[in-house]
Structure formats: C-alpha cells, structure tokens
Amino acid sequence: MSLNQLQSQLRRVAKEQMLQDPAHDIAHLDRVWANAHRIARDENKADASRANLRVLIAGAYLHDLVNLPKDHPERETASRLSADKSEPILWDLGYSAAEITAAQHVIEAHSFSAGLPANSLEALILRDADRLDALGAVGIARTFMVAGTIDRPLCDPDDPFAANRPLDDQVWSIDHWHLKLLKLPGDMATDKGRSIARKRARLMLAYLRQLAKEMDTDLPDHWADLLK
C-alpha cells in the first residue's frame, strides 16, 4: 500500500472513530501529518537512522482517537487510550507487530499532559509536529476554539497579561500562552521543528502586542522574554 493510499485509509478510520471537536478534527490531523512529513524529510537528509513514514503517518492520524477535553480530570490518559485503540486498526491495515508497537509508542508519547519520554525518532517528530499546530495563526484560532468549548474567558479583565497576579491557565485562556505555548519552541526536539516553532511563536507575540494595544494597556516584558 502506498503512503497516499495509507493516508486515505487512516483518514477514513479517523473520521469514523474519532470524537471530533473544533480544535481536534480531520484538518488538525492533516496539518500534523504535513508538519511531521516536512520534519521527517529534513531529519532524513542528515540522519542515518531514517524515520519510518508508515509509523509516522499512523501516529499522525491516530494520536487523537480518544480525545478528552482539556479540563477532563483524566486528560493525561487520552494518549494511552488512543494507543490501545489503534492496535486493531493497524492490524487491519497490514502493519507488522513491530510497526504497531512503534506506532503505539509514537501515539502515547506525543501528549504534553501524559509527560512520557519520546524514545524514537518517529515519536520525537510526531511530538514536534503536534505541538507546531498549537502555534502560529492556527494555534491562535485553536486556543480560542478550545476556550469556547470549555467556557473559559479570554483574560482577566483587571490584569489581562498578569502584570501583578499569578498566571492561571485553568481560569484565563491567554495565560496558557505564557505557561505553555510560547515555551514550546525551546522544547522542540528537531532543528526543523524548532525553526518553524520560533517563527510561529513570534507571530503570536505580535498578536499579543496588538491585543494589548486594543485593550489600552501594555504587554509586560516577561512575555517577550519567553522568546529570547
């Protein structure tokens, strides 16, 4: 089965079995695969241990099979549940036992909330690829889609950018950018992922500066310091 044929089959399965929300839909999976493929091409130019694209595409399209809301108390289990659910799917698509084990690790290790180490090149690439979709123009849109889904306000009206209060992304959406998203470029495992992440994070910082301007306030220096 060619990679294009495999992508078509995986997209079909994901549409049928994944509980989609506005920020975790087929378009998200397509973008993650595009990011992962781009990073893999860059990595494979220089690395003797080439990324297995069959394993990588499986991870890209099946990593959100079980998608629990961001505020769900068992959110950290979603990637393990997705990995478990992927096994019969991959058997049906002709994956070998070794490929299935590798793909399940990619799926389980991609999650930020699970906090598991990524122990393969494919897992590192997929983790970077998924996190890239939380940055840039798409990342801005997805932040607010998630916030709307769980009824989380944009920011503290009295101190929007936490100049004089503790950051709390369980209450305010924008705080999540400081506590997690704008730190992602520094956490990327691949050179290509890091380069793309930095560009996307700078766009988000420009958005924040404009947002602060429209709110007749200033963006505190500690936001820009995250990208230094």
Can I get a quick summary?
By secondary structure, the chain is mainly α. The chain is built from 11 helices and no strands.
Overall average pLDDT? 90
Low-pLDDT windows of residues: none
What is the C-alpha radius of gyration, as a whole number of Å? 18 Å
Number of helices: 11
Cα end-to-end separation? 45 Å
Shape: globular
Compute the number of strand runs.
0
Helix share of residues? 55-70%
**How many structural domains can be distinguished in the coordinates?**
2
Q: Proportion of β residues?
A: under 5%
Strand-pairing-aware structural class: mainly alpha
The H-and-E topology, N to C, reads as HHHHHHHHHHH
Oligomeric state of the chains present here: single chain
How can the largest sheet be summarized?
A: none
Features:
globular, about 230 residues, single chain, 2 domains, Methane Monooxygenase Hydroxylase, Chain G, domain 1, about 60% helix, mainly alpha, about 0% strand
Give an overview of the whole structure.
The chain has helices at 3-17, 26-46, 53-62, 78-92, 97-109, 121-132, 136-149, 175-179, 184-187, 191-214, 221-224. By secondary structure, the chain is mainly α. It has 2 domains: 3-118; 136-227, Methane Monooxygenase Hydroxylase, Chain G, domain 1 (Up-down Bundle), CATH 1.20.58.1910. The radius of gyration is 18 Å and the shape is globular.
